[in-house]
Amino acid sequence: MNGSRIAAVGHYQPAKVLTNEDLAGLVDTSDEWIRSRVGIRTRHIAGPDEPVDELAGHAAAKALAAAGYAPGDIDLVLVATSTAVDRSPNMAARVAARLGIPSPAAMDVNVVCAGFTHALATADHAVRAGAATRALVIGADKMSDVTDWTDRTTCVLVGDGAGAAVVEAAETPGIGPVLWGSVPEMGNAVRIEGVPSRFAQEGQSVYRWATTRLPAIARSACERSGLTPADLAAVVLHQANLRIIEPLAEKIGAVNAVVARDVTDSGNTSAASIPLAFSKLVERGKISSGDPVLLFGFGGNLSYAGQVVRCP
To answer: What domains are defined for the chain?
Structure first.
């Protein structure tokens, strides 16, 4: 085998929906204020009895079923998350136990909003190296657990959810080379820290970095796959907010691509945002099997990672 590919995807969101009107009852805000600044209308919020590994497990089970595989077919589980409460067992081990995966390598990847694309690249590398045969790659976060619900600058952004992909060996590579990196000296621009942990960010700094520095990096990720932005069928960026997604997508130059805007209905779900939005595009038939899709994550640590994948 010369590479790996995504065999199937799946996603999951909690049943509870929090609207902008609901938030207006908690903090000094309004539907108009939220829509005009971040483009979000609703977000899904997990209950106290819905931990991160449960969200991840639902999405992973859906991806496994879509791929036609049993839990025993998986030998690597990677979970991208930044909202794990406990240090051990990690989320990957918890998901493996939930699904009955017998003896996988099980690792968490904490690169916050860029976590899924980092985890996907790691799975691709493991499969290419022969260290894994079939991997389950999950992005899952429960941002509601780390949110200050009295801070209107952050509480209007967040949502909970999970997305997953089954990655397997392939004769023709369906996951392109990753382009990844970070700006460590600006890492404090996005934070989940303290006791209890709370999400905070320097919104203007993140906005300027995302809309000025990242377009060229995203275009370079396309070039690594031998494509131009005009060749893309879809662009799935980290679903931060529409004021970042829309100008960034325009500057990439993917003139023929569907641009994922799941943030309007799901909010910012951190590591879950890219696989969640990607899975919805596939489920709704917005893209077809074999279509080239740019996945590009960015955010916490001011890290970024992107690759072009072929739609399963």
So the answer is: 3-170 (3.40.47.10), 179-310 (3.40.47.10)
Kindly report the pTM of this predicted structure. 0.97
Mean pLDDT of 84-94: 96
CA distances from residue 72 to 12, 138, 232 in whole angstroms, order as listed: 22, 17, 34
- Per-residue model confidence as pLDDT tens digits over 155-184: 999 999 999 999 999 999 999 999 999 999
d(CA 265, CA 44): 8
Catalytic residue among 11, 20, 238, 311: 238
> Is residue 238 annotated as a catalytic residue, yes or no?
yes
259 residue type, one letter = V
| β partners of residue 40 | none
Query: For 27, which DSSP code?
Result: S
pLDDT over 80 (residue 1) = no
| Active-site pick, 113, 155, 222, 311 | 113
User: Span 292-298, mean pLDDT?
Assistant: 98
Is 125 noted as a catalytic residue in this protein?
no
Query: Is 268 annotated as catalytic?
Result: yes
